[in-house]
Specification:
The chain has 249 residues and is α/β, with parallel strands linked by helices. It has helices at 42-52, 81-97, 100-116, 132-143, 163-171, 188-200, 227-245; strands at residues 3-10, 13-20, 30-34, 57-61, 125-130, 148-154, 176-182, 205-210. The chain is globular, with a radius of gyration of 17 Å.
Length: 249
């Protein structure tokens, strides 16, 4: 499965990125994938390759491109709990600087670039994200209801800090949604309230807590990794994309 290094024009310069896609000389449904807070690294490339192997063109941008090319900070091969605190101390200023204005400006640039690729077909696209990338995925889908047909977020915040802002976000969604939560990120009561809000907004969705998980459960280079939860993630993500993007791959 080939990986191509790319540069995406944005309002604030060029964002480095990569794409994984089947090397068959055909057009494929496009998927925008947002990495977790640790950013682009080998495990993210492998996940993109896995998704591309099911017949998708997968674009993964460096969301912290304003701070330099990926990796924006040096990462260990395995991100253990003892290293996590120091790593996030360096990442947090970049996360805090990634304002709503930047999120939406970049999302527009990423989708414009994705849908212009000669390898991508002319149908709707999907967006998926992990950790903070899940927030970016939801914001992207809400801002582009005519273009994004499927959105998935795994161990990520929904992207709303009050019932009113949650209602505003959900009211803009037309995509089919899957939310996969970690047990440590959401209580059953919180899940019930979120799902009630999704129902009230008329969002076609599945939203569930993955059993036995902690935040970051999809990422095999962290202590949070849960192999069965990663498989469950694929069991939810692939049918979602297949339905929404009409891909039989």
């Amino acid at each position: 499965m080939p990986i191509t290094t790319l540069e995406i024009p944005t309002a604030d310069g060029r964002a480095d990125a990569f794409a994984a896609f089947p090397d068959q000389g055909e057009r494929h449904p496009g998927v925008l994938m947002y990495a977790d807070g640790f950013g682009i690294r080998p495990v993210v490339r492998e996940m993109a390759r896995e998704l591309a192997g099911h017949g998708y063109y997968v674009l993964v941008p460096n969301v912290f491109h304003r701070h330099g090319p990926a990796p924006v900070i040096e990462l260990p091969e395995h991100i253990g709990e003892e290293a996590r605190t120091a790593i996030f101390a360096r990442l947090m200023p970049m996360i805090q600087a990634h304002t709503d204005e930047r999120i939406l400006s970049d999302a527009d640039a990423y989708l414009r670039f994705l849908t212009s690729r000669p390898e991508v077909d002319t149908g709707p696209v999907g967006v998926t994200g992990y950790c903070i990338g899940g927030l970016l995925a939801m914001r992207t889908a809400a801002a582009h209801p005519g273009r994004v047909a499927a959105v998935a977020s795994f161990h990520g915040p929904v992207g709303a800090d009050s019932p009113e802002s949650l209602h505003r976000l959900l009211s803009k969604l037309t995509a089919e949604v899957h939310l996969g939560h970690a047990e440590t990120d959401l209580t059953p009561e919180d899940l019930g309230q979120l799902n009630q809000a999704l129902d009230a907004a008329g969002v076609d969705h599945t939203s569930e807590i993955y059993p036995g998980t902690v935040h970051g459960f999809t990422m095999s280079d962290t202590d949070a990794f849960n192999p069965s939860a990663l498989r469950h993630h694929w069991d939810r993500l692939l049918p979602l994309l297949g339905r929404a993007l009409a891909n039989d791959g």
